[in-house]
Amino acid sequence: LQTTARHIYAAGDVLGHGSPTHTALLESRVAAHNILHPKSRTSPDYTATPRLVFTMPGIASVGLSEDDCLKRDLHINKAIAPLSIIARSNTADFRDGFVKIITDKKGVIIGSTVVSPHASEIIHELALAVKHQLTAQQLADTPHAFLSWSEAVRVAAAKLS
User: Fold this and answer.
1) 17 or 40: which carries more pLDDT confidence?
2) How many whole angstroms separate alpha carbon 156 and alpha carbon 8?
3) Which of 31, 50, 136, 138 could form an SS bridge with 160, CB 3.0 to 4.6 Å?
4) 80: which strand partners?
5) By the 8 A CB rule, do 134 and 62 touch?
6) β-sheet bridge partners, residue 56
7) Is 65 exposed, middle or buried (0-12, 13-18, 19+ CB in 10 A)?
8) How far is CA 127 from CA 87, 110, 111, 143, 155, in A?
9) For residue range 100-125, what is the model confidence (pLDDT) as tens digits?
10) Integer Cα distance of 51 and 30 in angstroms
């Protein structure tokens, strides 16, 4: 994140891509590392950066979208778990929303979308899966708290296992 002036580094909006605050924080950590450790420079890894819309229900996504996969001619599998099939939707009297998980042909999670209350919190589990190339089976095998919105993540992952 070094600029054309060798002694100046940049992060966030000044880079010109209108990034959200959490992306600017990632870039600032990388810039600080590169300033302090010039012999082991790194660059930001945006692979697992969540995209968020703070509405009700919330909308969050991470990794590749289905359209991204089509444009890249990737062979994928996908599963959608509607919120209406988890217990939390009944106790909260809210059934509109879903969790969609996209995997490559080997079952590795490459993208996800969450439309749900608390989507901006739920997406982090999926961001971790994208970043560390977890499979849908690994995610499905992870216990999820019963009566939580994130149970829809387990259900969607189980459909791909």
Assistant:
1) 40
2) 45
3) 136
4) 100
5) no
6) none
7) middle
8) 24, 9, 8, 17, 17
9) 999 999 999 999 999 999 999 999 99
10) 20
For 80, phi then psi, to 5°, come to: -120, 130
* pTM of the full structure: 0.83
Please state, as a whole number, how many other Cβ atoms lie within 10 Å of the Cβ of residue 76. Answer: 16
The secondary structure element, H or E, covering residue 113 is: strand 109-116
**pLDDT (tens digit per residue) in 32-77:** 887 888 888 787 777 888 999 999 999 999 999 999 999 999 999 9
CA distance 42 to 140: 33
Quote the CA–CA distance of 34 and 2 in Å, as a whole number. 8
Q: How far is CA 114 from the centre of its chain?
A: 9
Q: Please, where are the H alpha helices in the chain?
A: 21-36, 66-71, 87-91, 119-131, 136-140, 151-160
- Mean pLDDT of the residues in the chain: 90
3-state secondary structure 42-63: CCCCCCCCCEEECCCCEEEEEE
